[in-house]
Amino acid sequence: MTPLLQLVSVTKSFGAVRALKGVSFDLKAGEVHALLGENGAGKSTLIKVITGAHRPDAGTMAIAGNAIENLTPTAAQRLGIACIHQQPTLFPDLTVAENIALRLGTTRSFARVNWPANRARTAELLGRIGAAIEPDAEVRSLSMPGQQLVEIACALGAGARIVIMDEPTASLTQKEQHLLFGVVRDLKARGVGVIYISHRLEEIFALADRVTVLRDGESIGTREVHQPSGSGALAGASPSGASPVDAPSGEAPEGQSDRRGACPTIDLTEAELIRLMVGREVAAIYPPSESDPGDVVLSIHNLGCSAGGVKNVTLDIRAGEIVGLAGLVGAGRTELARVLFGLTPADAGQIRLHGQSITVCSPQEAVAHGIAYVPEDRRRHGIILEMPVAENLTMAIHRRLFPGSWLKLKAERHLALDLIRDLGVKAYGPEAPGGSLSGGNQQKVSVARWLATKPKLLILDEPTQGVDVGAKSEIHRIIRRLAKDGLAVLMISSDLPEVLGMSDRIAVMRGGTVVATLPGGTSAHEVMATALGQSAPEAAA
Amino acid sequence: MSRYFRELSVAAVLALMLSALAVFAPSFFSPAPLLSRLASEVPALVVALGMAVVMIGRQIDISVGSIFGLTAVLSGTLLANQVPLPLVLPLAILTGALFGGINGWLVAGLGLPSIVVTLATLVTGRELLSLWQQGRFISLPEGVQWFGLGQTTGQWTLIAVGLLLVTLMAWASRNLAAGRFIYAVGSDPEAARLAGVRPGAVTFGTFVLMGALAGFAAVLNLVQSPQVDPKAGGGLELKAIAAAVIGGVAVTGGRGRLWGVFLGLLLLTTINPALTYLRVEAYWEKAIQGTVILLAVVADRFQGNGGAK
User: Fold this and answer.
1) ipTM, 2 decimals?
2) Which of B183, B190, B196 is opposite residue A387, by nearest beta carbon?
3) Whole-prediction pTM
4) Which of B4, B194, B197, B309 to mutate to test the interface with A (most CBs of A within 10 A)?
């Protein structure tokens, strides 16, 4: 039987970064094929290739046996490929019927819109997936799953044969998940191929027929999944015991017959999936830890912020200690940093700095307490691109450097030169605009600005994201040196080897809270298992 | 050189126009009318400087004409009631700052878009003014016009005040922490916030300064005639914005120099008389002004606007 979708040896590079290194992937009709991988493993790139958003550098793609070349997003839609994004991409001010009409309607700009027909069609599509949504409801008024259902209705209406779901359950409640699973099984029964991306292993075991694991842009392996209906209890069930297993009403019969693939059917366990996801050694490129942790600098207890989605966080950081904050995208790491820096002030719990209880309601207060935050997404907010390096460096220390608000340009220049030399910033001088520097050097300026405040606690959010390898190890050495000098460092990173290589301790977040604090020598496997919410059955080697 | 490319090119165009005038219409440089023309532009300069500050901070204030008009009428009424000028001047500045504070609170405090807020306060102020004054002019007592110094000395005084203010503000924008914060907030409010600057306070401050300068300008305007026109300041916002834009202030915030605004206003105000002296029909004036503003914005787009092409 010809697969519905087949990709062979697809590669895609962005500049020097090879996002996909020869990935092969296939999807059968009436199958749910899960895609699993760490942050940055290449899942999104692969999806974008399939939906025509990215053109692969090499490799072939075929739909129902027909080779596809030069795919564009519009062509992909015509071919029956639909993508349900984690954040629905609907127009919030338009009604459901208007949204669906826009997606499916005529492409002629001046044709008259047949509203009664549109409404009827919308009602029919929504009815097909069992969604109780009024066609005239404004999308703004719908819940997140409601909006996802509208997207699915759109996909159905467009006659989609391949539906891609990108972490569809990330923002859903348990009950909404069940509803969504029902829809997925229904799609499957209709012979639609579903590519299902999720970090939640229990969902994969509940829904998927096969699972492909990506790591560092390569396909590590494809495994069959024994559906719970056939094999009884699953191995290593989640601690919450919340495997949402519905009655297998929507099981597709042809899915069953296709169960024997090329790879040997081994009894797939969660432990094996995690091993596939992380299975690599931490390279010995990280500078060794020389710190000798001192007194507790920051101590937070049951910290929460409902606006930021952070709850019950308890964590200590000592002087001279680097605490890595690990977790998957959406686990609440940046949100925790924003609470500590007063950008979204806490509404529950305690923050103690050197034993003294403090409140942090604004960045100004955070700075006054000696908390510094180097934000992620440096190109946007880490430094001010139009301003010279020197002005960027002194931005956070105006009050101390210039008492009485008069700028002392000479003093500023001296300080800037010192910091530039100290951190090895490559710029033609303190007067070079921030935007003229390379990514790694911008990041150094961003770090240097906060070092100038002489902080007690330094929070780094993705400190090496998007910087080249050389600058990355320089930044690592700088972080090490700062810790050695007695600074308490909280380092958020999605780069697992970086977390493992740099941290004295690793705090793992999931669902807005710190679920575990692991010692420095923890294995990648254990960190990933904790981040995914699985108990690790194997002891760390 | 390239850092000051914009300001230098405005200066070059200005020099070109002045030399053309020197050759073809030397009477443009006869002292008395020139002095009078320059003095009459000082209030617009003061407002344009404030506007530039607001625009560098990524906002805009189109209500300046109304603040100017309201302050002028208020000051005129006080002066007509024998309140001395040295007392009226600070009161006028305070009144302007108060109106600016209202704008600033609506924009920075409530997070409303400044173009809508100040459009509303522009219209409201103007209507309140016509209700109050019903179009009546206010006659000023003796000794107010030209500060009681006589016309020539008075005009020189005004010009000196204008030049002093340009120098002072241009210096402060580079040498006061507050000036730098305005540039930072105008470049990237979120980055400024993450660096510990309070963007709301900065924005509020720029509107208060704008209001205060509009109030000051109203007095500098009022001393040039024996009466206060209740319609004074109409269209002032356009002139101020145009001067700022021509002088190199980025509408998107974060960039611009105050002495560039000074050159921009000089260029703008030379166009009209130049056309008259060169016997171009008056109908062309506004069209040519508009073209110059468009040219300035187009030049911004292509002159390495933040690194983009």
Assistant:
1) 0.79
2) B183
3) 0.75
4) B194
